[in-house]
Design brief:
The protein is an alpha/beta fold. The protein has 27 helices and 27 strands. Keywords: Oxidoreductase, Pyridoxal phosphate. It holds the Pfam family GDC-P.
């Protein structure tokens, strides 16, 4: 029987022998050939042997892994959630589930940095931006955020930098979601922001000085009220108003923009995206005119191509890619593109009338339940609400919540000792409303009708009267036939792994196997509320425990938190753990974070957001950390050193020989070592971060552990740490448990809205590890390193390989220097990238970490035929360039420039993003 690793790893034993011979490796002993390569590349000081025993069981077959997942799923109880708090039942149209979520054309695509082969995704994202901007009544929306609570935190930071107020006070609505309050506390503490809570709906006055205010609309309690006076007061005080708004409610209620808001944030989860025990879901952010350049994350803009035709591309792209480093105000990198596409297509499929009908039905059901309870003398706390009503039942609230769960299989929210909340959503039936009402002594009822919103308990003054979603795209794809064809037409304008190799250095675009993806749509994983009781999620918690223990083992750490829902958030969580550790030891003066000049842009950004001061350490001519400069910086900052952030293997694609010496120098100075796990694909099974001196790391599950990139998200960036930092890893106020795998209890502040982040896609990485086994993970690393070295060797005579390590080996990627080509022919790295499109490839990473270069990472998933095809394309492009240099082709007429000029968008400047015209 073929084992899974043989399906996942593209090169076979025979083709690996051919590649090894091209590298000059002795292949007379096939069992040692790859080991010889790895031992020549990975420094002996960090190389580890396979463990005699492992927490990771022997590799399972695909059928066995699915059976084990079925066993986990069977221990999750899919109750009807009426908890609300930003997470709701929703009906994913089958045409969207099948043609987006389950379609590799969408989930294996990369971030649309090359617009010529991303027009489908870009159109889908501008649909998303238009949907959000229309519903919020604001001029510009970005192309998604991570979740609602972190979007609120980004809104707070936007208000801080855009406001002219000198105050450090940010006012938080007392009726905000509890998870949002917790996130704000985490983020504010590190940045010296003072949070002040006010009962805004109750009329509590704002402080005299502030830089911003958060309004939850509708509130966590369900209350719908007019916040325009509060918004006006915030403006008078010099602050900005951030409104966290429910998009479905906004189809019936006045938009934040019409109420005077500067910023609107929230989630698009209830637009067809399953709850998934917390994610992944696409958050959103929209701003009024004048704040466009303050937006974090990605924006899609409309430009024109060389023929004058409309074309989409990312706007302000340089800022987004490099995250502004130590001048950063946000570390957002990965967004939630796949989920944003689903939400946008939900709006396209239903159109404005369909969304209004769904919202009206929800509001009517909530009103009907309110009437039934009022008839029984139950106190409904608020007279006005959209989908959630809060009721006061002195002495009975907890018992009613228990009975609802045990007797009816319905989850209610205990909002206080005498308060409970009941949230209605698109999936709620009148039979369920009747069942809930019987808990309060009401008789069972037979009632079934769709509501049109006329019974809704929305204040008359807040009824929405303006049009939205007026663009034709929201009016022409309402049949399944039309929708299917529209999604297909968009996918056909894109490039994803289902078409060919995406050799992006630093991004590890390996295959996401179908078996790994299979379980994420099972109701037992997809239909779970993130705040469901522990008794309902035993399967999830056990699977999470297993994955945490496996990740701890392969990284050499003691504890792992799966909460961060992006690599950038894992970085932040790790740095906050270091900050918490120093504060607990009384070392509040340790605030300096040393970061090599070659580091990912998110490193410096995360350090700034963790309240640290960034000090850049130089790299030597080989791309390694300059030890002399490191020692000089340590001496200069002495007792201030909080941490060093180092990527290993380095961002330059080599295994640094002196890494243990580097980490020891930082430890001797009293600092902690953060090892960025972005390049773990070159290390897994051969060395461990914890063994080379790391104290904490984040891991990109969307890179090394096979979670799809999805066109720019979802991502997961769990944080792993040594035991002394474990108490400072992220906790959550609504988590189902306090103790994690290994017996560690986390007490740091949360970094994502849900206790386990994007838990709905954790089965993907669980499946990957379970089917690969420890030996398969090690084999994948060796195969990836072999492929990168093979490319470096084959292309080295045509394009210089900028950096190599010991024995002239690279790690899992190599940097090709195209600057000599430009000097000789005028052909730039951009020209080569565009020409590669003609050969059927997505270009490698351009001009990072070194301008004028291409960073190539083939991954272990590609077979030798595809790798050779890429090599031959690059050689052909070099021959074309040589023809220019020898004057056989004119500079302006040769293919690499002529084709690139035809494909390149005419306007590459910083055009302002705009809505669909």
């Amino acid at each position: 029987m073929t084992i899974f690793s043989d399906r996942h790893i593209g090169t076979t034993a025979e083709t690996q022998r051919v590649m090894l011979e091209a590298l000059g490796v002795d292949t007379s002993d096939p069992s040692m050939s790859l080991e010889t390569l790895m031992r020549g590349a990975v420094p002996a000081s960090i190389l580890s042997e396979p463990a005699a025993t492992s927490a990771i069981p022997p590799a399972a077959t695909e059928a066995e892994a699915l059976a084990e997942l079925r066993a986990f799923a069977s221990r999750n109880r899919v109750n009807r959630s009426m908890i609300g708090l930003g997470y709701y039942g929703t009906l994913t149209p089958s045409v969207i589930q099948r043609n987006v979520l389950e379609n590799p054309s969408w989930y294996t695509a990369y971030t649309p940095y090359q617009p010529e082969i991303s027009q489908g995704r870009l159109e889908a994202l501008i649909n998303f931006q238009t949907m959000v901007a229309d519903l919020t009544g604001l001029s510009t929306a970005n192309a998604s955020m991570l979740d609602e609570s972190t979007a609120v935190a980004e809104g707070m930071l936007l208000a801080r930098r855009a406001s002219k107020a000198k105050s450090e006070v940010f006012v938080v609505d007392a009726d905000a979601f509890p998870q949002t309050k917790a996130i704000l506390e985490t983020r504010a503490a590190a940045l010296g922001i003072e949070l002040v809570e006010r009962d805004l709906a109750g009329g509590e006055a704002l402080p005299d000085e502030l830089f911003g205010v958060l309004v939850q609309y509708p509130g966590a309690s369900g209350r719908v009220w007019d916040p325009s006076a509060v918004i006006d007061a915030a403006h008078v005080a010099g602050g900005l108003a951030v409104v966290a708004a429910d998009l479905l409610a906004l189809t019936l209620t006045s938009s934040p923009g019409s109420l005077g808001a500067d910023v609107a944030v929230g989630t698009t989860q209830r637009f067809g995206v399953p709850m998934g025990f917390g994610g992944p879901h696409a958050g959103y952010m929209a701003v009024r005119q004048g704040l466009e350049r303050q937006l974090p994350g990605r924006l899609v803009g409309v430009s024109v191509d060389a023929d004058g035709k409309p074309a989409y591309r990312l706007s302000l792209q340089t800022r987004e890619q490099h995250i502004r480093r130590e001048k950063a105000t946000s570390n957002i990198c990965t967004a939630q593109v796949l989920l944003a596409v689903m939400a946008a297509m939900y709006a396209v499929y239903h159109g404005p009338d369909g969304l209004r009908q769904i919202a009206g039905d929800v509001a009517s059901k909530a009103a009907v339940l309110g009437d039934w309870l009022a008839e029984r003398g139950v106190e409904v706390v608020h007279e006005t609400y959209f989908d959630t009503l809060q009721v006061r039942v002195p002495g009975e609230a907890a018992e009613i919540v228990r009975r609802a769960h045990d007797e009816l299989g319905i989850l209610l929210h205990l909002a206080g000792p005498d308060l409970l909340s009941i949230a209605v959503d698109e999936t709620t039936t009148f039979a369920e409303l009747s069942a809930v009402s019987t808990l309060f002594g009401a008789p069972a009822r037979v009632f079934d009708a769709r509501g049109d919103g006329t019974r809704a308990r929305i204040p008359n003054a807040l009824h929405r009267t303006d049009d939205y979603l007026t663009h034709p795209v929201f009016h022409v794809h309402h049949s399944e036939t039309a929708m299917m064809r529209y999604l297909k037409s968009l996918a056909d304008r894109d490039y994803a792994l289902d078409r060919g190799m995406i050799p992006l250095g630093s991004c590890t675009m390996k295959l996401n196997a179908a078996t790994e993806m299979a379980s994420i749509t099972w109701p037992e994983f997809a239909g779970i509320h993130p705040f469901a009781p522990a008794s309902d999620v035993e399967g999830y918690l056990d699977m999470i425990d297993q994955l945490e223990s496996w990740l701890a083992e392969v990284t050499g750490y003691d504890a792992v938190s799966l909460q961060p829902n992006a690599g950038s958030q894992g970085e932040l969580a790790g740095l906050l753990a270091i900050r918490g550790y120093h504060l607990a030891n009384g070392d509040d003066h340790r605030t300096v974070c040393l970061i090599p000049s070659s580091a990912h842009g998110t490193n410096a950004a995360s350090a700034v957001l963790a309240g640290m001061k960034v000090v850049v350490v130089a790299c030597d001519e080989l791309g390694n950390v300059d030890l002399d400069d490191l020692r000089a910086k340590i001496t200069a900052h002495a007792d201030e050193i909080a941490a060093l952030m180092i990527t290993y293997p380095s961002t330059h694609g080599v295994y640094e020989q002196d890494v243990v010496e580097v980490t020891a120098a930082v430890h001797d100075a009293g600092g902690q070592v953060y090892v960025d796990g972005a390049n773990l694909n070159a290390l897994l099974g051969y060395a461990r971060f914890g063994d080379l001196g790391g104290d904490v790391s984040h891991l990109n599950l969307h890179k090394t552990f096979a979670i799809p990139h999805g066109g720019g998200g979802p991502g997961i960036g769990p944080v792993a740490a040594k035991a002394h930092l474990a108490p400072h890893l992220p906790s959550h106020p609504l988590a189902q448990r306090a103790v994690h795998a290994g017996g560690y209890e986390f007490a740091g502040g949360p970094v994502s809205a849900a206790p386990y982040g994007s838990a709905g896609i954790l089965p993907i990485s669980w499946s990957y590890v379970r089917m690969m086994g420890a030996s398969g993970l090690r084999d994948a690393t060796a195969a990836a390193v072999l492929s990168a070295n093979y490319i470096a060797a084959r292309l080295g005579e045509h394009f210089p390989v900028l950096y190599t390590g010991e024995n002239d080996r690279v790690a899992h990627e190599c940097i090709l220097d195209l600057r000599p080509l430009k000097e000789a022919t005028g052909i730039t790295v951009d020209d080569v990238a565009k020409r590669l499109i003609d050969y059927g490839f997505h270009a490698p990473t351009m001009s990072f970490p070194v301008p004028g270069t291409l960073m190539v990472e083939p991954t272990e998933s590609e077979d030798l035929g595809e790798i050779d095809r890429f090599i031959e394309a690059m050689i052909m492009i070099k021959h074309e360039a040589d023809a220019v240099a020898s004057a056989r082709w004119p500079r302006r007429g040769q293919p690499a420039r002529a084709r690139a000029a035809h494909r390149r968008l005419a306007d590459l400047g910083g055009v302002e993003p705009r809505l669909l015209a």
